[in-house]
């Protein structure tokens, strides 16, 4: 008799969301205050992109030269962009009540959004940095570090880092990759259980 996938095994793994939004921010930190300069999000339905949100954000705080080099965002590029209050309202409308996933967003992006009047912490479901950390010795064995770009490259995912739209998309593909890994592990676990219960089960292949 063929068994279903082990429930206990699946429960130990990452939550499987059918519809979700991956998001990311770029920000300019001056005197310990972070000013949002780009907000991006991508909406997925069964891991297929169905919509996206992407905008630069105006700030009158001079951009750090480090940020210019890292993100390619310049003062000229954001000079005519909407202010943060307008962007927060539009972003809230885009997100709605859907669950969110991100990469290390609990330590940076979510608090910064909350500081700007948009608290999405209750909708945040999965942090892929935490997932990568938990998988470092197994699924990511040998990886140099857990930066988003490094994890993406390790998994064969292409993308340009430090652009929040690209980072959101890379985060979603990492999520899908980890889910596929979990599914494969669950299948192998099922096969091992079947073989353990019936040592002769594998012989059936010779008589098909």
TrEMBL record:
Pfam families in alphabetical order: RNase_T
Domain (Exonuclease) ranges: 19-184
GO biological process: DNA replication proofreading
Protein name (database record): DNA polymerase III epsilon subunit
PANTHER family xrefs: DNA POLYMERASE III SUBUNIT EPSILON
GO MF term set: 3'-5' exonuclease activity; nucleic acid binding
GO CC terms of this entry: cytosol
Top-rank taxon: Bacteria
Gene giving rise to this polypeptide: dnaQ
């Amino acid at each position: 008799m063929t068994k279903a996938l082990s429930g206990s095994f699946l429960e130990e793994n990452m939550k499987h969301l059918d519809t979700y939004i991956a998001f990311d921010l770029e920000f300019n930190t001056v005197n310990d205050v972070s000013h949002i300069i780009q907000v991006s999000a991508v909406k997925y339905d069964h891991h297929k992109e169905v919509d996206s949100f992407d905008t630069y954000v105006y700030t009158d705080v001079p951009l750090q030269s480090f940020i210019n080099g890292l993100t390619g965002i310049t003062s000229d590029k954001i000079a005519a962009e909407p202010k943060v209050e307008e962007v927060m309202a539009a972003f809230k409308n885009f997100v709605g009540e859907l669950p969110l996933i991100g990469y290390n967003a609990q330590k940076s992006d979510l608090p910064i959004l909350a500081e700007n009047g948009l608290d999405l912490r209750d909708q945040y479901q999965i942090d892929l940095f935490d997932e990568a950390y938990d998988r470092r010795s197994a699924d990511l064995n040998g990886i140099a570090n857990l930066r988003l770009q490094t994890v993406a490259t390790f998994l064969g995912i292409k993308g340009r880092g430090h652009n929040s739209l690209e980072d959101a998309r890379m985060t979603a593909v990492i999520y899908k990759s980890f889910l596929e890994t979990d599914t494969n592990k669950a299948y192998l676990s099922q096969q091992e259980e079947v073989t353990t219960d019936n040592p002769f089960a594998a012989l059936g292949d010779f008589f098909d």
